Structures are given as structure tokens and as C-alpha cells.
């Protein structure tokens, strides 16, 4: 795979992962924060699930760029991700473990409402997504209209 092809893949996947994170942040704002806790568990769970999906998208891209063959099935186990992250990058493995525990288990499944805990999961998600950050990031305006969303997905 050429450097240009890798950059194109990074551009597309990075933009999509950041879109997930943007949506997750918007959803988290709906959870309203009082003192150190979010008040609405439903929005926290939704936001954490969305952020975790952005992490998985970034990991799939990272593995693809590193030559790891992705299984044909769409749903991959956490064991797949941890085993491959352990082989490629120890720091990435630590970040993945944190994202999995904070965003997926505590945030999504358990509905953790402590803002510091949830925000730490979001920070780690951004760290993981940065592993696929292209050399030159193309900033796209938000696509509110479905036609613009389709055009963006075709080209970016």
C-alpha cells in the first residue's frame, strides 16, 4: 500500500472517528452536569457507546495500516483488539484497556455518572484516535443535510 493510499485511508477514518467523538460530546452535554456527576444516565450511556465505537473504528484502521488481517465478521471480540494491540504497541494496549473499561463497561453498561471518570475515557479515546491522525487533516464543516453526509462519506 502506497503512502498516498495510507494517507487517504487515514483521512477518511480519522474524520469519521472524530465525527463519532463530536456526536458523543453533544450527547454527553444533554446529560447535564451537577457538581461532579452527570444527571441523566441514559445520555451518558449513549455518549460512551458512541465514543467507544469511534475507538473501534480507529483501531480497525490502525490494524489495517499495520497489515493485520481483520476477521470477516463485523463484530470482533475485545480479545482480538487486545492481542493485536499488544503485538504492535504497548502504549496502545494500555489506552485500549482504559477505553474498554471506562467507556464500554463502566460508561455504557454500568451507566457510570462520575464526570471525571467519563471524561478520562473520552481523553483516552482521543489518544487512540490520534494513532491514525493523517499528516494533513482536512477539516470538514458539519454535514447536517443527508446529501452532504453522503458526499462526505464518498470522498473523505
How would you describe the overall organization of this protein?
- The chain is mainly α and 156 residues long.
- It has one domain (3-155): Up-down Bundle (Four Helix Bundle (Hemerythrin (Met), subunit A)).
- 70% of the residues lie in helices and 3% in strands.
- It has 6 helices and 2 strands; from the N terminus they run αββααααα.
- The chain has helices at 3-30, 41-65, 78-88, 90-109, 115-129, 146-155; strands at 33-34, 37-38.
- It has a two-stranded antiparallel sheet.
- The longest helix has 28 residues, at 3-30.
- The two termini are 18 Å apart.
- The mean pLDDT is 90.
What brief labels describe this structure?
single chain, 156 residues, Four Helix Bundle (Hemerythrin (Met), subunit A), two-stranded antiparallel ribbon, 6 helices, 70% helix, 3% strand, globular
